[in-house]
Write a structure and sequence with these properties.
The complex is a heterodimer of chains A (110) and B (123). Chain A is mostly beta strands and 110 residues long. Chain A contains no helices and 11 strands. In chain A, strands 2, 4, 5, 6, 9, 10 and 11 form a 7-stranded mixed beta sheet that branches. In chain A, strands 1-3-8-7 form a 4-stranded antiparallel beta sheet, with no helix packed on it. Chain A starts with a strand and ends with a strand. Chain B is mainly β and 123 residues long. Chain B has strands at 3-7, 10-12, 18-25, 34-39, 45-51, 58-60, 68-73, 78-83, 92-99, 110-113, 117-121. In chain B, strand 7 (68-73) and strand 8 (78-83) form a beta hairpin. The chains are: A mainly beta (110), B mainly beta (123).
């Protein structure tokens, strides 16, 4: 099964800072890595799909990059409304099965 | 605007059963694969199950396999999760979520999520 390891588990930064989060896959998953934002009491929100595609309506300060086993998520200029937990997500669909896997999450604070 | 709303959560004793529902509106329900994802208190997101747009395939996370059953009624735009033999570690907010790409074409990113329903397993 594909495992995704996310780091760091938490970070604190100032408004306007650039913030980066990494996700390492246990095997080559090409560009099949997605990023979500989750705020307490709210539904998770898709931010980036297939490694680098910005979901419709998501601010351009969010970005994603990488392929294969190493992926990076960035917020170019941290805003107060970006306080949330961020998750990467991959999947394994080999051997006629499907398993989605989330990273452990990164709690972003200001 | 796509709308998903979960219901059926509550407090249940260990070993008992519970059935969650997810009512959908304002999109072609029968064209999309649907997932259940949960988040336990103080933990991260955990994928629970998926069902193909036509119900032809279903897959489960290892921690719920054999205990949970996902199903859907395309005539009523509703997704279900039947949860049996519940354990304390199943305590979580359960979310239903839609695949962004229709017809279960192998792109597993989830673009719309419901607000969630809380399941608490406790004696």
């Amino acid at each position: 099964d594909v495992q995704v390891t996310q780091s760091p588990s938490s970070l604190s930064a100032s408004v306007g800072d650039r913030v980066t989060i990494t996700c390492q896959a246990s095997q080559d998953i090409y560009s099949s890595l997605n990023w979500y934002q989750h705020k307490p009491g709210r539904a998770p929100q898709l931010l980036i799909y297939d490694a680098y595609n910005l979901e419709t309506g998501v601010p351009s300060r969010f970005s994603g990059s990488g392929s294969g086993t190493h992926f990076t998520f960035a917020i170019s200029s941290l805003q107060p409304e970006d306080v949330a937990t961020y998750f990467c997500q991959g999947h394994d669909d080999t051997d006629d099965t499907l398993l989605l896997t989330f990273g452990g999450g990164t709690m972003v604070d200001i | 605007q796509v709308h998903l709303v979960e219901s059926g959560g509550g407090v249940v004793q260990p070993g008992r059963s519970l059935r969650l529902s997810c009512a959908a509106s304002t999109f072609t329900f029968s064209a999309y694969g649907l997932h259940w994802v949960r988040r336990a208190p103080g933990k991260g997101l955990e994928w629970v199950a998926v069902i193909w747009y036509d119900g032809s395939k279903k897959y489960y996370g290892d921690s719920v396999k054999g205990r949970f059953t996902i199903s859907r009624d395309n005539s009523k735009n509703t997704l279900f999760l039947e949860m049996n033999s519940l354990r304390a570690e199943d305590t979580a907010v359960y979310y239903c979520a839609r695949e962004r790409t229709p017809y279960s074409t192998g792109f597993y990113y989830l673009d719309y999520w419901g607000p969630g329903t809380l399941v608490t397993v406790s004696s």
